[in-house]
Amino acid sequence: MAESGAGRARARWAPVSVVLVVLLGIVGLTACGGGSTDQPGGVDISSGARHVNLVAYATPKPGFDVVIPAFRSTPEGHDIGFSQSYGPSGDQSRKVARRVPADVVNFSVEPDITRLVTEGIVDADWQAQAPNNSTPFGSVVVLVVRKGNP
C-alpha cells in the first residue's frame, strides 16, 4: 500500500517535533529554578563551609526562621549552613533514632529525647549537662469554668 503525502510529511516532522518538545521541557524546567533563598536579598541558610543539621518539632519553626538568618548575618555564623527538618515531635525523634543526621534536636516532650537515650544517641545524663536540667520551658494549663462549676 502506498503512503499518502500527508503520512510522509508527518513522518518527516516527527523527529523535529520530539526535539522541540524536549527543548521546550528543558527551557521550562530551567525557568522554574530559583535562587538559594526565596527572599530578594535574603540569607541563604543552606550553604556554608560548616553545616548544622536541625531536627525539630514544627511549633518553633517561626522562631528558627528568624533566629537562623540573624545568626548567619553575624561574624560567628556567616560560614555555617543549616539543614532543617520540622514535623511532629515523635516523628522527628523516630527519624533521629533511625540515624537521620542531627546536630541539634528540639522536641516537645521528654520521652522523645528518652528514645534517643535508649538508642545510645544521647547521653543518659543529658538533663544534668545544662542549667535548669536542660528544660528551657515548662507548660502551664489554665482551665476556665463557669461560676459554680467546681
- Note the gap between the termini: 95 Å
| Number of H- or I-type helical stretches | 4
Spatial strand arrangement across the major sheet:
2-1-3
> Helix content range of the residues, please?
25-40%
- CATH class wording of the domain at 50-134: Alpha Beta
Keywords: Membrane, Periplasm, Signal, Transmembrane, Transmembrane helix, Transport
Protein name: Sulfate ABC transporter substrate-binding protein
Transmembrane segments: 12-31
Pfam family, one: SBP_bac_11
Overview of this protein structure:
- With 150 residues, this protein is of the alpha/beta class.
- The protein has a domain at 50-134: D-Maltodextrin-Binding Protein, domain 2 (3-Layer(aba) Sandwich), CATH 3.40.190.10.
- 39% of the residues lie in helices and 13% in strands.
- The protein contains four helices and three strands; from the N terminus they run H-E-H-E-H-E-H.
- A three-stranded parallel beta sheet has the order 2-1-3, sandwiched between helices.
Concise synopsis of the structure shown:
The chain is α/β, with parallel strands linked by helices and 150 residues long. It has helices at residues 5-32, 61-72, 89-97, 110-118, and strands at residues 50-57, 80-87, 104-106. The protein has a domain at 50-134: D-Maltodextrin-Binding Protein, domain 2 (3-Layer(aba) Sandwich).
Key attributes of the depicted protein:
extended; 150 residues; alpha/beta; D-Maltodextrin-Binding Protein, domain 2
Blueprint of the fold:
Elements lengths: L4 H28 L17 E8 L3 H12 L7 E8 L1 H9 L6 E3 L3 H9 L32
